[in-house]
Amino acid sequence: MRRYLYFLILFFTFILGFHFYLAYSNLSGSVFVYPIDDAYIHLALARNFAENGVWGVNPGSFDSASSSILYTLILSGLIKLFGDNVYYPLVINVVAGYGTVYYAYKCFSDFYGKKEVLWGLILLIPYCQLCYMVLIGMEQTLHILLTVMMLYYLVKNLKSDFANYDCLKLFFVSILFGAVRFESMFFISILAFLLLLRKNWKVGLMVFFAGFLTIVIFGIFSVKSGGYFFPNSLLMKGNYPEANFFASVWNIFKNGIVLNISFYKLFLAPFLILFFYFLSKYKTFDWRKIVANEVVTITVVGTIVLHSLFAVIRFRYESYLMAALVLIVVPIVVGFFTQKQADRKSSLYKRLVLGSFSLVLVYSIYISVFNYKVVRYASKNIEEQQIEMSRFLHLFYPNQKIVANDIGAISYFSNVEIFDIAGLASTNVAGFYLENKHLDTKVFDKKYHDYMSEIIRKEKFRVAVIYPKWFPDGVPEDWIPIVSWTIKKKMGVANRTVVWYAVNEKEADILLHNLKKFDLNKNVEKQYYK
User: Fold this and answer.
1) Burial code of 25-51, b = ≥16 C-beta within 10 A, e = fewer?
2) Strand (E) or helix (H) holding 147
3) 480 - beta bridge partners?
């Protein structure tokens, strides 16, 4: 069966190479640009931690802008050992991509047969968009790899009845898994709980301890450094119960699942497959038997539900869940079509599973076609917007205080001090959001506006480059718009247009002079306000 592995490695290499060429061929410079600005946040934070021992994008300020402890530490270690290099995220992701292919192969070949190997490996790359995850330079590919490894060693332990050597591997991967992204807490918690129900007390507690070890250590370090237990991104984007507990729980459930179209698009078809699988296998409900036999499946399904409720489902955050679904759904589907159907009900289940699996295949094709356009234009978007902003700031405002809402390329290339109105790189902004988000929207926006405006005025920030709609309750009245930069297409950025502002009258003429002097990318349309 190793020929399937070699074929998939070649297939993965070809698709990844095509994605890279598609993105790079549309760039005007000689350096590859990541299709998402957040990749540069990791680089900026990792460099600052390696060189200054500060966990933040600003030189002397602790601000937990990274949502991955492990990924940032790996980048920081590489910078410390070999010096700064913009290609480290790509290298890490390529290695993690090949590692994912290898462990997926091991999972199917060690525990199942040829059909599972073939279907699983064919579906893996498009379904979790592995090549695109590699290209964006984020921690998602590493998260996919560790998810596949967790499932592999979990199945291996279940088959060996948690032999000592297998247990050690599971514990080690659990430590890395908990550190790669905070959503891993869902997986770890459910798995530990199921192991306790199975009376695997020692293993369950050890998995829980291992999975939360890095998170707790980082949380303590973060609080002692003046931040919050969790990163700013979790505070700004996560969902969690608030003062009105029952109302907020219902809102979380309603927004995360009931009214969330993405949930149905991503998970309805595989959930139907699992539903018909349970109906066909268990004639009566016996939770002890189900827990004993279905630890892997329940862990994955529970993680999907908790992730949908409390985290974000958006074009890359769910990729590890899609990889996990491939590992559990493919053997079930193959099992339905290789066993003899004894009665009419079994035949019906078979047809329903076939129909649901067809939807999984359709989604794989759809998302691959959709991401073709993203890959083609996203890097170009970042080059024309975020990279141009960082070039301008590097030339005219080095070591100066500036206001922004997309901070990645700016923080990595410009050497400026940033006030982030989105809160990722400014802990005080994230804290204000956390403490006041329960307020009525209009009241909150006005209070949020006044809070940030006062900080910007007191701290004497010179210029701002933002999406105007992102400043709550409108841009401050005393700010002076100088010029807007507009790109042609919107794939890798939040908005096509950014606006440069002088935060006071004195700065306006200086900013205008600098902007007119700047050699802007010819594909960007500029419009002066005066």
Assistant:
1) ebbeeeebbbbbbbbbbbbbbbbbbbe
2) helix 140-160
3) 502
> Residue 502 has what DSSP assignment?
E
Residue 384: predicted pLDDT: 95
Per-residue HEC secondary structure of 421-453 comes to CCCCCCHHHHHHHHHHCCCCHHHHHHHHHHHHH
Angle at which helices 201-224 and 69-82 cross, to 10°:
60
Q: How far apart are CA 204 and CA 214, in angstroms?
A: 17
Q: CA 385 to CA 487: how far, in whole Å?
A: 7
Task: Describe the strand order of the beta sheet including 525-528 as a list of residue ranges.
Answer: 417-420, 401-404, 463-466, 497-502, 480-486, 525-528
**Tokens 């290209």, located at residue:** 135
Measured distance CA(76)–CA(51) in Å, rounded = 9
pTM higher than 0.90: yes
Give the whole-angstrom CA distance, residue 103 versus residue 251: 38
Note the pLDDT tens digit of each residue in 48-95: 999 999 998 888 788 888 889 999 999 999 999 999 999 999 999 999
pLDDT at 242 over 70: no
Torsion sign across C-alpha atoms 65, 70, 73, 77 = negative
